[in-house]
Amino acid sequence: MKVRQPMEITFEAIDEDRPGAKWRRVYDRHWHGYSRWFLSEGVRKRSTYLASLRALRLHMPELLPVFEEICKVSGGGDLEARFLSMWCPPAYIGGCSQAMIGGAEPALIRNYDYGPKLLEGILLRSRYCGKRVVAMVDSLWGVLDGINEDGLTVSLSFGGSPTVQEGFGIPIVLRYVLEIASNTKEAIAILQRVPIHMAYSIAVLDRAGNHAMVYVSPGKDVEVHDLCVATNHQHKPTWQRHAETTRSVEREAVLLKALASANDPDALLSVFLRPPVYQTSFDRGYGTLYTARYLPQTASLELIWPDQRWVQSCDDFEEGSRTVQYVATPRQ
């Protein structure tokens, strides 16, 4: 029998208010891979710098100063700026499960499911637009999931359609939400007006326990739902092969059952750490790379793996690193 070798990811916590030397080290580590992905369809498929700048100025003007700053730190090149704007990027397709609990102690719990070789593994505390934000980073300064000092937390899951249209990559939009919004109502207003290039289900939860699951999808109106669970389809699967491969319907059913039986954050968390919600097809480029639990009342989070946990918050943040091993197992 062939022995499956473990894969490793080193997660790093970085504290840097504005883009500087620490961010530049992350850029140097990942730019080669990102540039190859960004140009995978040819340079003519990507929007020009001027078009990207106009889109940012129109839809997310508050981000312009930090965008210009981060472009400067990266070296000020045309290609780098086009990538960092995240306007009309190539498609990216993943997995993810997420669930929210309201009430006196609101919580958002999510599994991030993706290929181990494609995760940056950076947890960044920053103050780009005045608010403290702690977030898992993607595309060098975008957000996969995160929380701000007001207790507003957001996370994403792929919405189940490969269709692409003109719009921003979702990581920069979630960055914008956390930088600007203070509550769920304000976050929804942003998601309703900023164009996003692919389908996503975006979980939003604030300190008061107000929550929403926002469906964005190319060619369709933004939908705001009073839902607490999302996996990788909206309403019902439309990309059947992806849904079956990622067990989207099965994961959703398990999470809905868990929420119905006990509105308990610890009980719900235990479901995220077991199959089918927890996935281990790492050798096929797909599995749960981390579980995150966000607690809006304390503006804090906990990154969780089967053998370790890491607690951070907007107020109390410690730089450091954690190395995690991933072993692929047969589908359960």
Structure description:
- The longest helix is centred in the N-terminal third of the chain and has 18 residues, at 21-38.
- The strands form two sheets. Strands 10-9-8-7-6-5-4-1-16 form a nine-stranded mixed beta sheet, covered by helices on one side. Strands 2, 3, 11, 12, 13, 14 and 15 form a seven-stranded antiparallel beta sheet that branches.
- The protein has helices spanning 21-38, 49-59, 64-74, 78-85, 170-180, 184-193, 240-246, 248-261, 265-272, and strands at residues 7-15, 97-101, 107-114, 122-126, 133-138, 142-148, 153-158, 200-205, 211-216, 223-225, 229-230, 280-281, 286-295, 300-305, 308-313, 320-326.
- It is an alpha+beta fold.
- 30% of the residues lie in helices and 28% in strands.
- The model has no long low-confidence stretch (mean pLDDT 95).
Which features characterize this protein?
7-stranded antiparallel sheet, 332 residues, alpha+beta, 30% helix
